User: Which sequence fits this backbone?
């Protein structure tokens, strides 16, 4: 698959702790997983400190804007290490997954989990 046609992976994480060791390991995992899948990395967006636990999540908003801009011409996805990187609370996580779907993409984890098939249920929009 050519780089122009490969899915575009937007890596997201959040970290409220001062220690960045686990964050770095998760990011390496995301990059390795995307490479293994043949996805092109669009970049990475990190909400740190208070922004990591706040509902606003400024970097997530930036990621969604970039995803929305890229979605019309390409398959796009938000890649996280695990679902807890979006939110530990299931309702909050689903709300974020809905925002990703509304931006034209889907969410995936490095554990081969994806909500790609649930995209229609999340937004009523079929995956192209």
Assistant:
């Amino acid at each position: 698959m050519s780089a122009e046609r490969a899915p575009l992976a937007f890596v997201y994480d959040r970290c409220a702790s001062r220690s960045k060791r686990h964050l770095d390991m998760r990011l390496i995992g995301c990059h390795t997983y995307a490479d293994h899948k043949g996805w092109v990395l669009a970049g990475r967006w990190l909400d740190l400190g208070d922004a990591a636990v706040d509902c606003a999540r400024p970097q997530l908003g930036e990621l969604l804007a970039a995803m929305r801009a890229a979605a019309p011409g390409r398959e796009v996805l938000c890649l996280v290490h695990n679902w807890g990187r979006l939110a530990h609370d299931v309702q909050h996580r689903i709300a974020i997954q809905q925002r990703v779907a509304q931006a034209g993409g889907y969410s995936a984890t490095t554990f081969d989990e994806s909500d790609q098939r649930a995209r229609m249920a999340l937004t009523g929009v079929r995956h192209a």
The radius of gyration is 14 Å. Helices lie at 21-37, 58-70, 90-102, 119-123.
